[in-house]
Amino acid sequence: MDRLDAFNTIAAQASRGELAFPANVDASIKLQRALMDPDCHADVATRLIQADPLLAARTVAIANSVAYNRSGTEISSVRSAVQRLGVRTLQSLVAAVLVRQIGSRVADPVLQDYVSRLWEHTAHTAALAQVIARRVTHVDPDTALFAGIVHEVGAFYLLSRAQDFPGIMDGEPAEWIEHGEIEIGRGVLAKLMVPESVMDAVAAMWRGMRALPPENLGDTLLLADDLAPIPSPMHTRPGATTAQAARTIDFAIGDGTFDAILRESADEVESLYAVLML
């Protein structure tokens, strides 16, 4: 089976919801479904988070990050962290765990390197998207964070299936972008119950259509993706980067500039990135 046939096979399976996830993903999907329930209040969310020690630790860590701890008052309990963050941010944390679990089945060292660099790119993109949403486009920052976390989930899924399709990672990145990314990505996003607004934003990023200054969630995500200092290994060859060119992007915002906002927000971005890398 050649590479394009492999893409088509995986895409067809994904469109039918026939996805081969690691066993631990099912538990995270159930947790995500519970958190998305409109009746899920803080007490319920606290109990759900406390049941997962790793997620509990990440929840407290992100609550103490610069982005969410504006008062400088550190907290140590999951209950306090949930109250500070809210259920929407918790959904992003669970999504981060879920995405990393999908890539966890990769055993080959070369593919593991792809997974590692892809998560670094994802974490940078998510952190930048949250700050750009809050400071520039004024779309919902929690939604932007979530969108950044899931925007490459189709690529994580492809890497998790690579051992079943020898040679699928050979060839040019353009083939993945043209023949695999959209079809496989949509199927995985749908299986993970990603909201339609986020799916539309990720689709806009796939199309590469962006306004400057950015106006909506899709623009926010694409700009964050461009600015991430670690490029997606699915879009570039190892060693290649568009980050230097992306850093030249600047535009006026009120009495200031986008570059100034990024410099002012550097600690927030780094804090969020560090938590997502835990």
TrEMBL record:
<dbReference type="GO" id="GO:0016301">
    <property type="term" value="F:kinase activity"/>
</dbReference>
<feature type="domain" description="HDOD">
    <location>
        <begin position="21"/>
        <end position="208"/>
    </location>
</feature>
<keyword id="KW-0418">Kinase</keyword>
<protein>
    <submittedName>
        <fullName>Histidine kinase</fullName>
    </submittedName>
</protein>
<dbReference type="Pfam" id="PF08668">
    <property type="entry name" value="HDOD"/>
</dbReference>
<dbReference type="InterPro" id="IPR013976">
    <property type="entry name" value="HDOD"/>
</dbReference>
<keyword id="KW-0808">Transferase</keyword>
<dbReference type="InterPro" id="IPR052340">
    <property type="entry name" value="RNase_Y/CdgJ"/>
</dbReference>
